[in-house]
Design goal:
alpha+beta
Length: about 180
């Protein structure tokens, strides 16, 4: 079975007076991590208010790739360097499936994609998926009662959207979504 991309949200606060050093180290870690197998991308979100938490959104090809990065010497080296300019240990949150379609609630609202853009991207995935399923699959389910037939079709749509269609659409349209 093919595993899908994993998103990790990291929250951490820079020590007072160390914000610039923290940002510089995090960006250097991103540049180094780009060469690590399975590390797809990362984004640094500054705090909403001075002295607040930074957030990092990291994307890995698979959970296994994330585990390898966590266990790597490269990451351990960066964690040591960051400990000098950061307060406490980082907090982590993993996102899978529908959670990862768009930014999570913890991401500052100013960074959220416009709702109308998210709606258009969702519709671009849902419309052709439903149309194809109605044309090819619905006739096969015709003998089933209405609610069972509807449940089967919507389950197929949810699975396809979550694991196949939306990850590809949001990757292809990322520049437009985040404008």
């Amino acid at each position: 079975m093919n595993e899908h991309a994993v998103f990790r949200i990291v929250r951490r606060r820079a020590k007072p007076g160390c914000a610039q050093a923290y940002e510089t180290l995090v960006r250097a870690m991103f540049a180094d991590a780009q060469h690590f197998p399975g590390y797809l991308s990362a984004e640094l979100l500054p705090p909403e208010t001075a002295g607040g938490d930074y957030q990092i959104i990291q994307r890995f090809s698979t959970s296994h790739d994330l585990e390898r990065w966590n266990a790597s010497g490269e990451r351990a080296n960066w964690m040591e360097k960051l400990a000098v300019v950061a307060e406490g240990d980082p907090e982590y949150r993993l996102l899978h499936g529908l959670d990862a379609w768009f930014a999570p609630a913890e991401v500052p609202v100013v960074k959220m994609p416009a709702r109308w853009r998210m709606t258009i991207v969702s519709w671009l995935g849902i419309f052709p998926t439903v149309a194809l399923l109605l044309y090819f699959v619905a006739p096969l389910l015709a003998p089933l009662p209405f609610l069972l037939r509807t449940a089967a079709l919507t389950a197929i749509v949810a699975i396809l959207m979550s694991y196949i269609i939306m990850p590809r659409l949001t990757r292809c349209l990322a520049g437009w979504i985040r404008r």
